[in-house]
Amino acid sequence: MTKNSRRSHDAFFRWLFADENHLRALLKLSAKSNLEIQQFLAAVDPNTFVRIPDSYSNVDETGEADLAFRVNASSGNHALVGVLLEHKSGPDSNTLEQMEKYVNSVMKAYAQSHSATRIPTVAILFYNGKGPWDPFKILRKNYSDYFFKSVLPYQCHFIDMKMISDEDCIGCDDVATAMGVTAMKYAFNRKKLLAILPKFQKALTQIPYDEAKNLLEKISVYLKEYLGESILKELDMAFVSIGQKYGFVSAGDVFRQRLAAGKAEALAEGISKGRKEGRAEGLSKGLSKGRAEGIRQNTLSLAKTFRNKGFPLEAIADATGLTIDEIKAL
Question: pLDDT tier at 227 (50, 70, 90 boundaries)?
Fold first, then answer.
């Protein structure tokens, strides 16, 4: 997979799991359904994860791996273990070769700069594609279980994110990781996504405003690439109870904001007209006429726009004060 073929949604995975706290939460969620990850977490000290800077690699240019970390082994005298994270949203026959190059370049460079001869490395491949995929299929075809792990010059574990349960995500203390995993799990399943994400509303209100707003914005941009612009409107409605706090406003809120702006514009227009007439009577008449006409036209225009976008007629009528028949006639 080349730089040009690498889609921008990989940035969401990198943004979220470059944080060591989110990485720990992701691995703990994965370990609930994957014995190899359980064993890995037992062999290291998860509290010692530190990201290896991108300056040690050409990750942004070649796409050989998404993220690299080092972590202390649970035994030994501060022995280090290298950890690679790679994300795929579709099958890629070159994945194992890509990660092998990364092991040979990044981990060797990092080891040399820290006076170590070598660092044992564990690569973890996360997949959230539409259909099933087994990146080890060819290896399993050619080699028995006895030789299988010896074929690769590093340990490699595969996590299909669809195997992480919704219940574990909803119960996870790390809201950002839980919502991020959920968004990735159902990036191809609009119906399921809209049913699950609102269940995080209560947990989302427990984290700082800026963090929550940033998380929702990142998820929106990520999902828009998979599901299109309309998913944002549906997420807006799904999160209506906490909408104003975190920027997901309801249809009625949109109408009211736009109407308020229209009223202010109409008021200014009426005052300007009255001043030009130069008489108090003209000011009064101009203000009244301009304000009434401006508000009326703005209301009709807004109602027509949102009707054409498919918003419920009842919501439009509630926000604008127009009747449903008036809205239909526009």
Answer: confident
Q: What pLDDT score does 321 carry?
A: 78
Q: Are 85 and 49 in contact (CB under 8 A)?
A: no
Q: What is the pTM of this model?
A: 0.68
Per DSSP, what are the bridge partners of residue 81? 71
pLDDT tens-digit readout, 271-296? 465 555 555 555 455 546 555 666 67
Residue 183 amino acid letter? A
Over residues 234-276, the pLDDT tens digits come to 776 666 544 554 555 444 444 455 555 555 555 555 546 555 5
Residue with tokens 């940033």: 214
